[in-house]
Specification:
The protein is α/β, with parallel strands linked by helices and 157 residues long. 31% of the residues lie in helices and 25% in strands. The protein has helices at 14-27, 39-50, 97-102, 115-130; strands spanning 3-9, 32-35, 61-62, 73-76, 86-89, 105-111, 134-139, 146-151. A hairpin with a 6-residue loop joins strand 7 (134-139) and strand 8.
Length: 157
């Protein structure tokens, strides 16, 4: 059973945090899906990933292409065709307890300067924890990432 990691972005914007997390996930050997809520925003993320440093290039694609199943990182609005081990959600994209339980990791990235995004993350945290999922809350409020809360998975046996 995986865990959900919640990343409260207050110092570093999404376009800088996401590539770091994607690099770590790829370093673990995981295929990754990045789930968003709008095609325009996924297009923007796609451009940001292409504009990153060449020595840290993250091979990826946007869902709907011919080779979705082969993408190491797939940007998508829904289910991912690349059989990910890790799901990263942005902009309040939904994630289910079932996904947390079947994937190695789920990362929920949310903008700490947007009160609506913070409230949505709280709702997601509560729903996942109430469903028995393990969850960790990471904050960068001090300028470096620190785990501020942890709720271990509840045993279903």
């Amino acid at each position: 059973m995986g865990e959900a990691y919640f990343y409260h972005l207050t110092q570093t914007p999404l376009e800088h945090t996401l590539p770091v997390l994607l690099g770590r996930a790829r370093g673990a050997g995981w295929r990754v899906a990045v789930r968003g809520t709008s095609s325009d925003r996924l297009d923007w993320l796609d451009r940001k990933l292409w504009d990153g440093p060449s020595d840290a290039f993250l091979p990826h694609g946007i869902a709907g292409g011919e080779h979705d199943a082969r993408q190491p990182i797939l940007l998508t609005l829904g289910e991912a065709a690349n059989t990910p081990a890790c799901l990263m959600t942005v902009d309040g994209a939904e994630v289910s307890a079932q996904e947390v339980s079947t994937l190695d990791r789920v990362c929920v990235l949310f903008d700490g300067t947007d009160e609506r995004a913070v409230q949505q993350a709280r709702v997601q945290w509560k729903a996942l924890v109430d469903a028995g999922c393990g969850a960790k809350y990471w904050s960068e409020a001090t300028g470096r990432w620190e785990m501020k809360a942890e709720n271990p998975a509840k045993s279903t046996v």
